[in-house]
Design brief:
Layout (H helix, E strand, L loop, with lengths): L1 E13 L6 E11 L22 E7 L2 E8 L1
């Protein structure tokens, strides 16, 4: 198994309850062998929706191995 980091670089998002602002969200994703991997970003709260450029990255050992930019 390998450990990937799934990173989303996005426009400024401010949590309406805590006031915390983010421009990067990421989480670890352990993957075994040639397992197919699906990941995404869900908009669970209104404050998570922002217009602008979003970048999705897959990071392995600190290096970006895949990237997709969209608006």
């Amino acid at each position: 198994p390998v450990n990937l980091v799934i990173r989303t670089i996005h426009p400024k998002l401010t949590n309406s309850e805590t006031g915390r602002t983010l421009t990067v969200s990421e989480y670890d994703w352990p993957v075994a062998g040639r397992e197919k991997v699906y990941f995404g970003f869900t908009f669970d709260y209104r404050w998570e929706i922002a217009e602008g450029t979003w970048i999705k990255q897959v990071v392995y050992n600190g290096k970006v191995i895949a990237e997709k930019k969209f608006k």
